[in-house]
Amino acid sequence: MEKITYKTTGTCAKVIHFERDGENRIHNIRFEGGCNGNLKAVGLLCEGMKAEEIAEKLSGNLCGAKGTSCADQLAKAVMA
Fold it and tell me: Which of 18, 46, 51, 60 lies at a 20 to 30 A Cα distance from 1?
């Protein structure tokens, strides 16, 4: 498994940690900062999904007037 750390921009969460397996499935998603309960739920809901599925579902999800969100940043992170 490849361990990845992604520095976010424009969100309360500052960093996203996750692992990618050989089938491009994402595991063990953890956010540093942000809305703890909501981001734990996002991580659980996305556990084991392919990166492309996560990006398709979460890309473009916005938080207020920020122009992005923690979920949108996860979509960017898994495709980076």
Answer: 60
- Helices in the chain by DSSP H: which ranges? 36-46, 51-58, 70-79
Residues 6+ apart with CB under 8 A from 71: 42, 58, 61
Element (H, E) at 69: none
Per-residue pLDDT of the chain (80 residues; tens, 9 = 90+): 999 999 999 999 999 999 999 999 999 999 999 999 999 999 999 999 999 999 999 999 999 889 999 999 999 999 99
Q: What is the pLDDT of residue 68?
A: 96
Q: Which helix (H) or strand (E) holds 32?
A: strand 26-32
Question: What is the Cα–Cα distance from 28 to 11, expressed in whole angstroms?
Answer: 20
